Amino acid sequence: MSLICFAKPSRLTLTWGDSSVSSSNVRNIESLEAFQAGLIRLSSDWEQAIQEVRMMVHRAEEYFSSDRPAYWRRQTQLAERELTQAKDDLVVKRSAPRAEDRPAATEAVKRVKLAEARLRLCEAKKRAAKKWSLEVKQQCDDLLGPIADVAEHCEVLLPSAAAELRQLIEQLKLYADKSDT
């Protein structure tokens, strides 16, 4: 494609390919160059910010889909062992042949009740962690779609706009050089 410029005393009409871009009052090509450099910086800055957001989304998803469920599975296993141990201790205390030889089992009964309560809590947390895992995964997937669109702007559209602007600037420089002579 070629750029065709029609001069009027301080106005240019630019034609890019088959379409007329517009009539513009270009007084300072350096400002266009600064704008083009700004587009490149903006693209780079946004790309970095999007990468950081993606990493945060993936960390959040990892935390809720792997870390928390694994933690509560492990805590449930420990609570089951604790309950088994507490019940075994209670059985031992109650297993003396004569009632007068049996030690008081009130502490052992309390331990069993506490272990049962802890096991119920861990199982509830494990179920909640699974529910949250699914919900957070869905939310992360919903967020990553629009982020991909913005990433496309950063990686493709802004750099191509900057490249096209660079071509226009070069054509304007050629035109300005011809006008000066």
Could you explain how this protein is built, in words?
The chain has 181 residues and is mostly helical. It has one domain (3-180): Helix Hairpins, CATH 1.10.287. The chain has helices at residues 29-94, 106-180, and strands at residues 3-8, 11-16, 19-24. Strands 1-2-3 form a 3-stranded antiparallel beta sheet, with helices on one face. α1 runs antiparallel to α2 (106-180). The longest helix is centred in the last third of the chain and has 75 residues, at 106-180. The radius of gyration is 36 Å and the shape is rod-shaped.
List keywords for this structure.
disordered N terminus, Helix Hairpins, 2 helices, three-stranded antiparallel sheet, mainly alpha, 181 residues
What would a concise description of this structure say?
This protein is mainly α and 181 residues long. Helix content is 78%, strand content 10%.
Q: Which helices and strands, and how do they pair?
A:
Blueprint: E1 3-8, E2 11-16, E3 19-24, H1 29-94, H2 106-180
Antiparallel strand pairs: 1-2, 2-3
Strand arrangement in the largest pleated sheet? 1-2-3
Strand content: 5-15%
Give a short account of the largest sheet.
Answer: 3 strands, antiparallel
Overall pLDDT level? 84
User: Spans with pLDDT under 50 lasting ≥5 residues?
Assistant: 1-14
